[in-house]
Design goal:
Helix content: under 10%
Shape: elongated
Distance between the termini: 30 Å
Largest sheet: 6 strands, antiparallel
Order of helices and strands: HEEEEEEEE
Structural class: mainly beta
Number of domains: 1
Length: about 130
């Protein structure tokens, strides 16, 4: 299993800040959908089609306690990627191309068919442990 934070595009940059190396944060983030673990580069098993293969913007609440949660509900309406089961997401710093940031598995796979709508209702990322 390789879901998690991208070592190259995110974790190492955060860690380099401790040593004084500046990091330019992404201006926005976008979620992509996958039918299996996206892998270390976030590119394995992407959903396809104009709608199914598109990334949607993700808005975030302020961080608290080492965790950050999505606000809003990105939606993929009028699905055109065939009948699939969505099992994972990937996060990117651009709506196409760009840098892979992190990935995760859905709590349960979600079957979807052409014409349906898929809503991403929750997403969070946490860095632990946090000193108390």
């Amino acid at each position: 299993m390789t879901t998690g934070i991208s070592g190259t595009n995110l974790a190492n940059k955060w860690l380099d800040m401790i040593g004084g190396t500046a990091f330019t944060a992404p201006a926005a983030s976008y979620a992509g959908l996958h039918t299996a673990d996206p892998g270390a580069s976030g590119t394995t098993s992407p959903c396809t089609g104009a709608v199914g293969g598109s990334r949607k913007a993700v808005a975030w609440a302020a961080s608290s306690g080492g965790s950050k949660a999505m606000t809003g509900t990105p939606s993929w309406a009028s699905w055109d990627g065939g009948s699939v089961t969505i099992s994972h997401i990937s996060a990117w710093d651009a709506s196409s191309a760009g840098n892979f940031l992190f990935s995760g598995a859905l709590a349960a796979g979600q079957a979807i068919t052409n014409g349906a709508t898929f809503n991403l209702t929750s997403l969070s990322i946490a860095l632990t442990p946090i000193a108390a």
